[in-house]
Model the fold of this input.
Amino acid sequence: MKKLIATTALCAALPMGAFAQDKPDSLKVGMTTFLTGPASVFGVPARDAMDIMVQNLNDEGGINGVPVEVSYIDEGAGAEALTSEFRRAVEQGGAEVMFASISSGNCQTLAPLAEDLEVINFMWDCGTQRIFEEADYDYVFRTQANATPEMLAAVIYLLKTQPDFETLAVVNQDYAWGRDSWDIFRTALMQFKPDVEIVGEFFPAFGAPDYSTEISRLQALQPDVVLSTSWGGDLDTFVQQASQRGLMNNSTFVLPLAESSLERLGSALPPGQIVGARGDHYFLHPERRDDEDFKSFMSQYEDQTGNITVYSVFHASQALAALEAAYTKAIEENGVEWPSQEQVLAAMDGLEFQGLGRPVTIREDNQGIEAQLMGTSAQNGDYPFATLENIMIFDGAELTAPVGEVSTDWIETLGPEFVDEIEPTTFEN
Amino acid sequence: MTEPLLETRDLVIRFGGVTAADHVSLKIEAGRNLAIIGPNGAGKTTFLNICSGWIKPSAGSVHFEGEDITRLPPRKIVTRGVARAFQIPQLFTEHTALENLLIAASARDGLRNPLRSMHGIDARDEMMHLLDMVNCADVADRVVVELSEGERKLIDIAVALALKPRLLLMDEPTSGVASSQKDEIMEILIKALSEANVTSVFVEHDMSIVQTYADEVAVWNAGNVQLRGTPSEVLEHPDVIRDVIGEEIA
Amino acid sequence: MSSVTTTAPATGSSPAALSLLWIAGVVLLAAVPFLAPNLQLLVNFALAKGLAVVGVTVLLRAGQVSFGHALFFGISAYIGAFVMASVPGMDFFGILIAGTLGAALAGLVVGLFVVRYRGIFFGMLNLAFSMIFWSILEKFYHITGGADGIRLTRPTVLGMELGRDAFELFLYYTAIVLVVGLGWFTIRWFASPVGQLFQTIKTNETRLEYLGISPRRAMLSGYLLSAALCGVGGILMATAQGVVTPEYVWWVRSAEMVFIAVLGGAGSVRGAFLGALIYEFVRTYASAYAGDVWQMLLGAFLLVIILFAPGGIIGIFERVFARGKGTS
Amino acid sequence: MMLSFKDVSASIGIIPILRGLDVEIPQSQTVAMIGRNGAGKTTFLRTIMGFTRTTGEIRFDGKRIDTLHPPKRPGLGIGYAPEDRRLFSAFTVEENILLPAQAAGLDQAETQKRLDRAYEILPELREMAGRPGGQVSGGQGKMVALARALMLGRKLVLLDEPFQGLAPALAQRYSEALRALRDSDRSVTLIITESNPALLRGFADRTLVIERGEIAEGAPQTEGESA
Amino acid sequence: MNLTTFLLALFDGVSYAALVFIVALGLTLIFGVMRILNVAHGSLYAIGAYATVSLVGWVLALGAAPILAFPLMIVSAILVGVLIGGPVEYLLLRRIYDKPEVLQLLVTFAVFMILEDVQRLVWGTQPYFEAQALRALGNVTVFGVTYTVYQLILLPLVALTLLVGLRFFLRRTVTGKLITATTEDREAAQSIGIDADRVFLLTFVMGAILAGLGGALASPTTSILPGMGADMIVLSFAVVATAGLGQIEGAAIAALMIGMGRSFAIYIWPEVAVLVPYLIMVLVLLVRPEGLFGSPAARKI
Done:
């Protein structure tokens, strides 16, 4: 890769150099994902989906005849192994583009590394809004939304469906995501409905095996709404324990990441709880579920894994779609057989692509604009687990902090009327 | 009247219900080697343990050269000039015999340069001499675990001597040494002690050793000094013959 | 306790030929950026970890095992991160010194408590201290960044701003210099009177006391050294990696250090580095090529070493070398 | 022969303690084993029990035992009272005495029979049967250890320095118990180690002197012989 | 904090302590008898949970009554003890009893690493959940707060039964007495004919069964996922060290202290809840180096 960069740089220096790219044998991509550890609930489905989608893409001739080849790096092996492997993939493995990563912490580590290595990096799943708000990047892009629209969608959905609640408690995992997402949610809630009383804030340890004490306290506090942005085994445990002890009889749960737990939770998730998906990601996406492509992928995925999709599958599809779109656009715009890195980078500006959800566009600060889907759980017997009804899909552009603004500052400029100004597309189910 | 080197005043120690020392007042004069004899379990080792600070007495006090050392930990008592050799040798088993002595010498001389190798220290010749004195020069470079019980005993004493004490407490110095060597060892030991101006107190079961090498003998029985005197006075005393010596040496 | 776990105290010098071999090894390491540039970062991590492992090795020499030494590794790394964050443009040597001093200070504070304990309790108490620090790192998210940790920007080097490649090269050679220097220092320290007294804790504290030395103070001297060594390792790791996370302090990290120390040859300084290099290679390549079973491979590797080669890799190495010399 | 050693060497760690011993001890003999501290007396007994690294051949009652798993040896009829009595403080005196029978899996009736015999020989133990093992004095502990050794020691009883640390009165009592044992069952073989030969005078049939790991036959000591 | 919340915190603390105690019990039993601190104990806990979930899921899928989950928990625990605990002791630990404790610890650490991957290979990385047993017992409402009978009543009851039962077993049964004797003095035990090797094997299997049982009992209340063992082992270390190594009743008290400390912290000062076990451990050990109930070993010279 070093050689490649050197070549690229040399080419760029020559007036005609930009046209001198040969078609490679394959387009090598490195993808970091959790194959081990708790977050493998997202990582493994994303990898499985990526394998299917890459196969499909290559079956149709790849990108301008060049097949895509993805190799995976385990984020679960720890930050040292991850950084060395990331570098190895770029410098030795010849990866032209990297997809990294799931963990926000890893994104924070790898984004500057990608910048230093001058390799194009798509942050394909991590949620932290800070990266582009704190620094400018030339090589790093995000092919999905960040935490701000994800949380705003949850707040607005809550206020639109249950405007009269008075008290709220939060039970989030004690790490960056749990804290950051609560910051955004609370800031927005205080702007939109200042009279809400926050009666409890709990941050049990990441991976906590038992929430009995928190649930006892919540039962004593009796909040109208309980928010939890937890995911994976933690969310499963919390919801199971809470539903078993009847906490949902009196409180409405807002679970912005529960789409990824629906199948595992089965009948444990009672109807009437608010569910989100970090984007418009749902295996019964109301706008997409009748599309042939969508349907065929869903059945392919279910055949291979035995499960329904979770949102990380959609994020993986968006990263791959962005790759395809960027290369195709660069090839068309420059009229070349294969684009140089500079041409691909140029193509990223304002790029629009569509994965399994609505189309996504890349903004000038490299942030993706992605729609948000929220719904309410229903146990209607179609599946052995909860499905969503009263679905709303929000336009991402309205909910994302404008370019150059810090999310929390921007949210503080909003008022209660913002909720009414937002008009999502609504679906019965 | 000169001040005694070591003096105990009304020393009492009880373990559970047993009184191992019962109001012991004992003076040890400089330059006179004192042997302590007595039946097993009479409290002889306990007495050495108290004098060296390992056990704190229930009542009473211990004075060394006039200073009250009763409450001092062993390491402080050592620096005052009281060294100790043990019935079961207490050595650094993974070090060689010579290293054991060198470590003792560096503990004595203080620790200055942290990067100066043990083997470069000035005390090396002095320590080899000590080993030679206790007949162990030939095993100087052998690791202690490989040595026989008798050799370890002698090295244990040499380590104590390396500290250049004024008083040396020894617990059965010749047990475990072959009988043929005992006299030879004691000969050397007593000579070395007097050369270095070290007074010794030793617990001993071998009456011929006591007879030959002690300047004074104290008979320990039932937690107190029953009798004290010169070896011939004490060893011929009928009570001592009955209670302590038995008919062994007869 | 038998002496199988530790090599005999290194009071004698290795045969000249063996020393030559070690020198050749160092030269080979120094050539890595040119011969195999892609290994440079990996080796750099291994050297940083190796320094921490030497810290653990120091304690093994006194027969003690700490299951919490990642604490000092992590403290130093976090101090480095905090200093970088609060003093922009801080120099590398500034954070190296700050981190090492911080680790040594923490070693003094923790050491004053733990030197009273031996064996399992010593190990457990160290574990408890490290877990307290770990919990604090996770919990006080607004200060420590929680599980995501803190990013370290690249420090300047003697006032110069270096690019990534130059900085990494600098860091790499600094690591080699530190490894050789501190390794030499530790070996010398073992042979010194203070080091010798410290090591006697393993075999006979009673005699130590009767030499007029406080076993606790002797223990503290080694504990301080071990904490400082972990500190240097931690700061090297933090700057090489560019991020510090609470995982630096997690108990499995501490166990891993003991693991490497025994793997390399418990009690041997050179073994610690050899072990760290091998461990880092096995771990990285196993996690890349046998992602599902890399832990299992390492575990099995450790079992084989303990059961069949208690002298560790260095033991095998020296035995083979001695045999080779005998026949030639 | 009840017990025979053929060229037996034993070591603790790497230190050799016994060197090429050849000894034969016939049934019902009482043997005093005399030697200084560290001479190898205790190791001799421990070698019979299987606690040392041993070479050579040891036979007990015609059966080779040096290759036998150590915990199986007491079951053959060997009782052992170690020097430092080593009672189990978690159990009462009686439970301590019963343990060997329970470990050997003896039935209730047999166990009771043996317990009664032990009490016959050491009647004072009946009174302290319910006391915790950790709360008996040193001398009483020696008695309990003897009784415990008798539970399985139907053929061979090994006593390591039984008189060490006993007050004169207790020592007297202890040797009476040993006499009672011999009188009640002449078939038992006894090996007693002692550093002070005077204490066994008039009791042992035979004296073995152990010095630096080697054994020499001592003078036979019979009752009434004076010093 | 009023009386009601005080009692609620108490209930939560007890139910949490019960589970921790069951796991710590096995750890302290093994240490007490064998002087080995088994790092792989946490893995056995996790595997007990996984095995239960698989077994219960399979049997219930055949249409069995949910109440059958309870005997299946015991079956899983025994399987863990016999199929994993047994071979680990027999093939590995037996070879290192005369080695320094560092090496013993590392052997169990190696086993821990291996078992972590075994879990992943067998059960994958997705969380499992199987709460039939918990649902079968229903709920109980105290002071307006709903608890599951399983957590509030069953778990403490099981813990208490195990505590009393193990006590009885060790003091009153022949096998128990042989174990107790071996614990106190291995060589003296061997010299009266106790086969210490068999005692060790039995003890380790029993300890492993207790670890497995802890996992089995935990399984209906939590998600079973990779890494759960690594967390549990540190917690039960803390309990065991606080109590004093090898102290069975002590472990019960220490587990209660840690459980209560944690639940009260959540009511009063949630930030420190995670710190509580380690703080308690450090504070106790600083004051009493041998743990609350351990006795100091006298040094003899």
